[in-house]
Backbone:
């Protein structure tokens, strides 16, 4: 049988949930049906953080409302296009509630409107790390060095009832958490901050030495730590980092939970950008477990190399780990005859692709 590790995504601009119907026909065959879902009042937002309440509602915070960022430094990642609201969405009841986060203290207000934060939920607490955006305090675009803990149920109830939201956020600073465009995983109460970058200044596709300069440093690391949280006090403990410039130099990629052939849980860092010597995606992937990481150079991921909606699905009967990818950007696509076509411009694609790891590890 299939044991889906499924997050729900919405089709259209608000990429939170694809409704999927999975039917197993054989060891590596199933169908995916996509049903467009329109939720009244749902925001047009991307690159946000999200959590789930105990009764199934979603909270959405951060990200941007302008779609694809502009390529001119003066027009890219403008503050006016930050998402400065928190949304609560009930997809079943077709309802959306929202409130501004401008009532929060400055450090919370600034970080929580940033884009590409790393986030994961533990119990009723959504932890959000880093993110990139304009800071009025610094008068510059920065990557935030913040960890924010959010009381999901408390925040959702406050938004729905038009009550104060201030008490449902706690925050600390830590320079090791100044990351954007990575991923945050949780395994056996250990947090894994994987890949990403530190970016300071205005985005400029011509590079740091032409026009407005910027600082860009890939982490090249898997950073692990525990979060000590008694409901009031937050701290980072047991921090360590594994550095690998050759293999962990990637951002804006997909990372998904995995069950490996021996039954070990973990994550896979799929593809991502950019290679050291070319503005092209990586094709290999990196597997992560509690015992370390391993680079898989025997596999090339030709499709879906940029951050997109994804669904990991584990087939318990056949010990096969499937991961589905929806859209995103890709260096390759398939034509009508299923021939692989290369496009080094790495455009947005409509591809739905599947990566399967079988019981023999291949």
Residues:
């Amino acid at each position: 049988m299939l044991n889906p590790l499924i997050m729900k995504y919405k089709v259209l601009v608000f990429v939170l949930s694809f409704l999927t119907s999975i039917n197993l026909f054989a060891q590596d065959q199933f169908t995916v049906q996509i049903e467009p879902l329109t939720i009244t009042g749902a925001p047009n937002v991307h690159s946000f953080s999200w959590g789930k309440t105990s009764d199934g509602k979603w909270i959405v915070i951060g990200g941007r409302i302008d779609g694809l960022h502009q390529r001119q430094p003066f027009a890219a990642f403008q503050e006016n296009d930050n998402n400065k609201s928190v949304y609560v969405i009930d997809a079943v009841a077709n309802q959306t509630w929202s409130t501004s986060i401008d009532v929060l203290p400055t450090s919370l207000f600034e970080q929580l409107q940033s884009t590409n934060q790393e986030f994961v939920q533990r119990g009723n607490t959504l932890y959000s790390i880093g993110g990139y955006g304009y800071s009025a305090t610094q008068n510059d675009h920065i990557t935030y060095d913040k960890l924010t803990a959010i009381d999901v149920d408390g925040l959702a109830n406050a938004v729905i009832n038009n009550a104060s939201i201030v008490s449902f956020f706690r925050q600390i600073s830590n320079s090791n958490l100044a990351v954007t465009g990575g991923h945050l995983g949780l395994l056996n109460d250990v947090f894994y901050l994987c890949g990403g970058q530190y970016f300071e200044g205005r985005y400029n596709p011509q590079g740091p030495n032409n026009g407005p300069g910027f600082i860009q440093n890939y982490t090249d690391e898997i950073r692990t730590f525990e979060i000590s949280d008694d409901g009031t006090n937050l701290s980072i403990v047991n921090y360590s980092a594994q550095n690998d410039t050759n293999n962990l130099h990637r951002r804006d990629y997909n990372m998904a939970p995995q069950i490996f052939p021996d039954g070990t849980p973990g994550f896979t860092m799929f593809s991502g950008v950019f290679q050291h010597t070319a503005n092209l995606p990586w094709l290999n992937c990196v597997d992560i477990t509690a015992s370390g990481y391993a680079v898989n150079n025997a596999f090339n991921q030709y499709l879906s190399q940029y951050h997109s909606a994804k669904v990991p699905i584990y087939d318990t009967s056949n010990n096969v780990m499937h991961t589905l990818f929806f859209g995103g950007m890709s260096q390759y696509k398939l034509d009508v005859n299923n021939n692989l076509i290369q496009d080094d411009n790495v455009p947005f694609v409509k591809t739905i692709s599947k990566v399967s790891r079988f019981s023999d590890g291949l």
